[in-house]
Amino acid sequence: GVATFVLDAFTGRGIVGTPSDFGFKGERPTHPQLLDWLASEFIRNGWSLKKIHRLILTSNTYQQSSGYDEAGAKVDPDNKLLWRFPRQRLEGEVIRDSALAVAGLLNPKMGGPSVLPELPPGLSVRGGWKVSADEAARNRRSVYILVRRNTRYPMFETFDMPDTHESCARRNITTTPVQALTMLNSELALQWAQSFAGRVIQSVGNNLDAQIDAAFRLAFSRQPDKEEKKTVKQFFARQRNIVKERRDAGEPLALPPALPEKADKVEAAALVDFCHMLINANE
């Protein structure tokens, strides 16, 4: 039968199939003229995926903010006119890189061999997994983490890493409790929160208002509004009592690295918990 080539307007990904795959089994395209133009540009530029990716990613439409706009929502609630960038899930690699960047730990070095970060306690590995000795190397961008067919990095596996046993792997989209539990309870996520809190203290000191502003700025690139700031202060008021109870019971506290000896450890531990929540937030 006749095959049809369709180009995804956002990802630049080409899909080949029969007309029935696209004409009868899905919704009609919202911007057929745009798809025709992109397909013609793709062919005109020698079928280069790099060029079509660059064209799409540098367009004004692709660079739209995903922020809510009341006027746009009133006119086009389904965003068919693409007045904002559609919200989408992040891959595990992007989640890790973003958290490392916010924590001030991301190593931007380019090139070189793959790295092997720490694995969760109790995970047995066939063939060995020699953790990279240099901690800074272990915090390189996720694209440099070794991909081993029979031992996929657990965090990426949790967030739908493509199956390395398949010759044409693809990402599934799942929503499981393990994903939330990994971000809330894993030692790795706690280390990110501790470093994030240390970065906040180093930046603005011990003033709570300044800490809240700095944490929002680092995590979300914006300042908190009045209602958010009020909610955060209520959180700190409750969390201080919880942390005090833990300390009095002899439980270890999660503290920022390089915390001064005279610093208030209860306040610092509460700040770590707050930073932990910001890392886990949808935004």
Q: How are the SSEs placed, and which strands pair?
A:
Elements: E1 4-7, E2 14-17, H1 19-23, H2 32-44, H3 49-57, H4 70-75, H5 92-103, H6 135-138, H7 154-158, H8 177-185, H9 187-204, H10 208-220, H11 226-248, H12 265-280
Antiparallel strand pairs: 1-2
Describe the structure in your own words.
It is a single chain. The chain has helices at residues 19-23, 32-44, 49-57, 70-75, 92-103, 135-138, 154-158, 177-185, 187-204, 208-220, 226-248, 265-280, and strands spanning 4-7, 14-17. The protein is mostly helical and 283 residues long. The chain has a two-stranded antiparallel sheet. Strand 1 (4-7) and strand 2 form a beta hairpin. Helix 8 packs across helix 9, helix 9 crosses helix 12 and helix 11 packs across helix 12. The two termini are 45 Å apart.
Brief summary of the model shown:
The chain has 283 residues and is an all-alpha fold. The two termini are 45 Å apart. 17% of the residues are buried.
